[in-house]
Amino acid sequence: MYRILVVEDDDIICKEMIKNLIKWDYEVEAVTDFHKVMTLFVSFEPQLVLMDISLPFYNGFYWCTEMRRVSQVPIVFVSSAGDKMNAVMAMNMGADDFITKPFDLDVLAAKVQALIRRTYSFGKTAPLLEYNGVIINFADSSMQVNGEKVDLTKNEFRIMQQLFENRGKIVTREEMMKHLWNSECFVDDNTLSVNVTRIRRKLEEAGAGEFIVTKKGIGYMLG
Question: CATH no. for residue 39?
Answer without folding.
Answer: 3.40.50.2300
